[in-house]
Amino acid sequence: MTDELRKRIGDTIARGRVMLFMKGNPAMPQCGFSAAVVGILKQTGVPFDSYNILADQELREGLKEYSSWPTFPQLYVDGKLVGGADIVRDLHAKGELQQILTAHS
Amino acid sequence: MTPDDIRTRIRAALPDADVSVRDTTGGGDHFDATVVSAAFAGKGPVERHRLVYAALSDAMAGPTAPIHALALTTATPEEYQRK
User: What percent of chain B has pLDDT over 70?
Assistant: First the structure.
């Protein structure tokens, strides 16, 4: 990966405290797993930003390598990977997600 | 890709693992896996998933990867017993 791409990925992750990289956008998710995470985030009421990786092939492939994570969605809080759909769903079911989303502001 | 292929790869990376894999659509590209291994002890969910993804990296990387989706549940043997 080029330094330029690595920097662009870092900058994109830093765009929002709660940042969701997904297929499509929150109004029209293009994949069931992305839709599930959007639904859960909306339930928490915590504001989040999103990035449509389907519209940016370079960032899509780069982010997989950057984060050692081969799938989307990917949820970041304060620049740190929280997980994909399974983990977000699991944290939500255990009642731990809200705290992760709001803890270190 | 078959559930057995996935199971074999995960077991190659985590030899103690108890692995069950289901093809969720019958199409050979969407899977559901439960992996129970002592290697997960002391690790958070992101690290646990990374261990499994690393075992499957060749099958999950790139736009033509045979695995499109893998729903993953991880547990240590102790956590699994408690369920």
Answer: 100
What is the domain-level CATH number for residue A48? 3.40.30.10
Q: What is the 3-state secondary structure (H, E, C) of chain B?
A: CCHHHHHHHHHHHCCCCEEEEEECCCCCCEEEEEEECHHHCCCCHHHHHHHHHHHCHHHHCCCCCCCCEEEEEEECHHHHHHC
Number of domains in chain A: 1
Digit-coded pLDDT (tens) for A49-86: 999 999 999 999 999 999 999 999 999 999 999 999 99
Report the gap between the CA of B16 and the closest CA in chain A (Å). Answer: 23
Nearest CA in chain A to B63: A61
Full domain range(s) for residue A19: 3-102
Confidence check on the interface: ipTM exceeds 0.85, yes or no: yes
Distance from CA of A40 to the nearest CA of B (A): 17
Which numeric CATH code is attached to B3-82? Answer: 3.30.300.90
Work out the pLDDT band at A104, boundaries 50, 70, 90: low
